[in-house]
Amino acid sequence: MHSSDTTTHLSTPVGAALYLGAVLGAGVLVLPGLAVHLAGPASLIAWAMDSALGVVLALLFAALGTRYPGQAGVFGFVRQGLGPVVGAVAGWSYFMAATIGQIIVPLSGAVYVGAAWHFGPTGVLALAESILGVAILLNLRGLRVSGAVQIVLIVTVVSVLVGTAALGLAHARTERLDPFWLHGWLGVAHTATVLFFAFSGWEVIASLSGEFRDRARGLRTATLIALIAVTVLYLGISGAVVLGLPRSLAGSPAALFAIWRRTLGPTASTVLSLVAVCLATGTTNAFIAGASRLGDRLAFPRRSPIAVPHTMIWVIGAFAGLGILVVTLARASLTVPLAASSGLVLVTYLLCAIAGWRLLAGPTRWAAGLAALATLAILPFVPGIPWLLAAVASGALVLLKLPRTKELWSADRDPEFAE
User: Fold this and answer.
1) What is the CATH number of the domain that holds 16?
2) How many domains does the chain have?
3) Residues 6+ apart with CB under 8 A from 78
4) What range does the domain containing 117 cover?
5) 3-state secondary structure of 3
6) Tens digit of each residue's pLDDT (9 = 90 or more) over 329-346
């Protein structure tokens, strides 16, 4: 089922809010402490390295989205640069990665809240399904409704994170930088690999590039706003944790909670629970918005773009809802779905970067080259092989020519992507 939406054009504030929601995930609550645990104060270098990589990725996808606007996102970019078969593999790979991710994101937020309030498995399950359900309902209402709510969610999250950085830096002590190196450059490199996933998400809004009111200017401005905000927030929070907390607390997954508890006492649980729910909901909302449009373009390649892809929203919701139920009831680790999702995202990044190298010119072409090299360097560090199996399954979807997928094999370029 599909319907039109008279408000398909994204404003710059909504676009920036969706970008921030896609990049700022629940990981920001635990990654600063994990980074200190892995590399000590030198983790600040890892954050700076990944911030630079985030700039490269943001430039790459903004350039591709500006030059080839439309609702196909990574599928359209790779198809234009590397052909329809590789484009289909990239599209289905990313669609699968984003769908699997909607098991991880709601559960991550729910687990964090559950730990603060001592929820059992039933409470965590109910909260995770509720987060997913809210995001589904918002997307079914169209981008105007989901975008308006996204702005509220992101303003709340950013306000609290800015407060967290300010509170931590208010107690900053430079002596906490000594000893600076715990495991040398190897520790920093490993930490940067872990933190890389905190800087992914720039590809999500590429699927919505054609819905900006001013496609070129709107997308570039939204990217710039989100890029500055993400970089400042990540560096500010990591600095607050390293400089503002004793080492024993700075290396804890609950480092941000420790910053707030020092000032607010028991109220800190309420504050960070609110942030966890807002982050999880905002990220799920943004990913469903982008992935559903990509999935619709892949499954129905000859149909005119639609505003609200109801079918794909329900497909993603049903898969993620079932996944949340299975993972929670089985008390399974999120390691396998995380590895599968992360590996598929990296495969997609690599294909997009190679396509960008062929399609772009000037500084953005070099950004594509740097992104390709960085992705190749990180890919071997993805734990396990689930991502490889998922990539093979994605390729099989194309080779077996699932219903309507065979149209993707057409050698003719889609007019939608014509220069």
Assistant:
1) 1.20.1740.10
2) 1
3) 86, 87, 89, 90, 91, 348, 351, 352, 355
4) 12-417
5) strand
6) 888 777 667 767 777 888
